[in-house]
User: What shape does this take?
Amino acid sequence: MPQSIYEKYGGFSAISRVVMTFYEMALESDQIGDYFADVDMARLIDHQTKFISSLLGGPASFSDERLEAVHRALAISHEDFDEMGALLKAALEQHGLSEPDVRTTLSAIEAKRNIIVARTAA
Assistant: This one.
């Protein structure tokens, strides 16, 4: 049985470290940093860790309907989504994921673009 990316890199705690690094970068980003000005970061990091874990073969799962509902009011643009992807790529690489596993992870996130980006965003 093939090992999932989630299992390969150490499960929830390893994914949590990647997500923490991602948000350290995101908070400093001129493009997306403002989204997190009034956010409970501990709660967000926990939620995002569960979400990314589920995309990489971990135990948590999220429906597309729930994902859309959570992001609907945020008016996330394609440029914001691109910046998120670039920062996540940097965080994954910083934590030693192989290039194929980084691509797989980013592809899983990219598959959710149309759900996360606002329908009216350019």
Observations:
- The mean pLDDT is 92.
- The CA atoms of residues 56 and 105 lie 7 Å apart.
- DSSP finds seven helices and no strands in the chain.
- The helical segments are 5-8, 12-28, 41-55, 64-71, 78-94, 99-110, 113-116.
